[in-house]
Amino acid sequence: QTLVVKSAFVHSMNQLHFRHLVNQVYPEKRMKQIATMYDVTDGPNDEGEMFQRPGILTDAFPAPYPNEEAARYANGGANPPDLSVYTTAKHEGVDYIFALLNGYRDPPCGVDVRAGLYYNTYFPGGLIGMPPPLHSDGLVEYEDGTPCTRSQMAKDVVVFLTWASEPTHDERKVLGLKALSASMLGVCFIVPWYRAHWIGFKTRRIDFVKAAI
């Protein structure tokens, strides 16, 4: 949870809403309280002006920057990508993000890294504008006593982003299984009915007799 909050200060998740976290992270009442902590621009009102209001469950996660230019200015010219569907939209997105979070190294000899950039072996070109988000172990404390290593934290981030890209994945699979089961059950009833209904037409014999003159 702490890692996700830290990432939210840099990356946007425009396609994820507060309601998606209900009963996944917190109960509905608690999520409503969290949503009200953010001010959301809404409107226009009766006077044709936009206004600020407390967030509700149907609101999307607030963006960390008002526009792309502000995002680039705050990150040394780099625009942090939206992470809503990053793991599914990018080829091997899950493995890429995990490797990227653990791929920060000291630059090899002969590689000049200008100020504001960092060397990452898994980033195309090797130089990335994002500082190491998991710079050391022990950034968070797990309630179950799990060792807080950089690898473990990177795994947690990837798991959350995978869920965020398809928050209805499990429900969709269950619905598909129910639909498939209902279809198979329907076939069990349709086949006997079809045979019973059409058996008289398919087994009859029609003889044509020449009419007597």
Structural class: mainly alpha
Q: How confident is the prediction overall: mean pLDDT?
A: 85
Fourth-level CATH superfamily of the largest domain: Cytochrome c-like domain
CATH hierarchy, class of the largest domain: Mainly Alpha
Helix content: 40-55%
Placed side by side, the strands forming the largest sheet appear as: 1-2
InterPro entries: Cyt_c-like_dom_sf (IPR036909), Cyt_c1 (IPR002326), Cyt_c1_TM_anchor_C (IPR021157)
Cofactor: heme c
Family: Belongs to the cytochrome c family.
Keywords: Electron transport, Heme, Iron, Membrane, Metal-binding, Mitochondrion, Mitochondrion inner membrane, Respiratory chain, Transmembrane, Transmembrane helix, Transport
Task: Characterise the protein shown here.
This protein has helices at 2-8, 28-35, 68-74, 86-89, 93-101, 150-165, 169-203; strands at 39-42, 51-54, 118-119, 127-128. It has 213 residues and is mostly helical. It has two domains: 1-16 and 60-166, Cytochrome Bc1 Complex, Chain D, domain 2 (Orthogonal Bundle), CATH 1.10.760.10; 172-201. The strands form two sheets. Strands 1-2 form a two-stranded antiparallel sheet. It has a two-stranded antiparallel ribbon with strand order 3-4. A hairpin with an 8-residue loop joins strand 1 and strand 2. Helix 5 runs antiparallel to helix 6 (150-165). The longest helix has 35 residues, at 169-203. It is elongated. The protein starts with a helix and ends in a 10-residue tail after the last helix. The model has no long low-confidence stretch (mean pLDDT 85).
